[in-house]
């Protein structure tokens, strides 16, 4: 039996087969959770935001057209959910909770040095400006192509390339500053 694509599943959800939403949840909830955790540094907020994304998908399912790739569409919803969440609460999405993110191993590894480097990387990532962190997470962790990110952010592909390059440089600088190494 052929596995249905994300778009096919979403069209079924849109047309009333709400059970198919659970398949999309299985495919995307961990990815969204990790994205939110890396963006916000907060476990509780990340869990709430994942739920909000799927609630919005269910609520607005009739508006799905399938014009873009499904992952771009769901990350647009995720991005809007995060922005709305922090706008309603008028709180920062990162900063003070950077230590929570750094102490929560997203991908536990063997060896003390690797764990320390991973913690440093997460701390450095949390210290990036939100826009820089977002483009890095989308391009490096979510493996989105620059063209897809451009569609998501509503900017030219060249702008995304420049932002990713600049964000990598800033991340590197923060990482080395935290580690005490000289570049």
Protein topology:
Elements: H1 6-14, H2 21-40, H3 43-59, H4 70-89, H5 98-103, H6 112-127, H7 130-141, H8 146-153, H9 157-179
Helix pairs in contact: 2-3, 3-4, 4-8, 6-9, 7-9, 8-9
What can be said about this structure in brief?
The chain has 183 residues and is an all-alpha fold. The chain is built from nine helices and no strands.
User: What letter string, H or E per element, gives the SSE order?
Assistant: HHHHHHHHH
**Biggest β-sheet description:** none
| Count of folded domains | 2
Pick out the low-confidence regions: 93-110
The CA-CA distance between the termini, in Å, is: 53 Å
Strand tally: 0
Q: Give the count of helical stretches.
A: 9
Look at the structure and name the CATH superfamily of the largest domain: RNA polymerase sigma factor, region 2, helix turn helix motif
List keywords for this structure.
Rna Polymerase Sigma Factor, Chain: A, 183 residues, 72% helix, Arc Repressor Mutant, subunit A, mainly alpha
Report on the structure:
The protein folds into two domains: 1-93, Orthogonal Bundle (Rna Polymerase Sigma Factor, Chain: A); 98-183, Winged helix-like DNA-binding domain superfamily/Winged helix DNA-binding domain (Arc Repressor Mutant, subunit A), CATH 1.10.10. It is an all-alpha fold and 183 residues long. It is globular, with a radius of gyration of 17 Å. It has helices spanning 6-14, 21-40, 43-59, 70-89, 98-103, 112-127, 130-141, 146-153, 157-179. The relative contact order is 0.11.
């Amino acid at each position: 039996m052929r596995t249905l694509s994300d778009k096919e599943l979403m069209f079924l959800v849109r047309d009333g087969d709400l059970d198919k939403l659970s398949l999309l949840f299985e495919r995307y909830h961990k990815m969204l959770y990790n994205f939110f955790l890396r963006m916000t540094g907060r476990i509780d907020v990340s869990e709430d935001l994942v739920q909000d994304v799927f609630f919005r998908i269910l609520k607005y399912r009739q508006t799905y057209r399938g014009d873009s790739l499904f992952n771009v569409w769901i990350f647009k919803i995720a991005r809007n959910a995060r922005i709305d969440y922090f706008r309603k609460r008028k709180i920062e999405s990162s900063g003070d909770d950077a230590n929570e993110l750094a102490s929560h191993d997203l991908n536990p590894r063997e060896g003390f040095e690797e764990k320390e480097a991973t913690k440093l990387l997460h701390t450095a990532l949390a210290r990036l400006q939100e826009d820089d962190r977002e483009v890095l997470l989308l391009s490096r962790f979510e493996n989105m192509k620059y063209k897809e990110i451009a569609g998501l952010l509503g900017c030219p592909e060249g702008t995304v390339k420049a932002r990713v390059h600049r964000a990598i440089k800033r991340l590197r600088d923060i990482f080395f500053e935290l580690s005490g190494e000289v570049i």
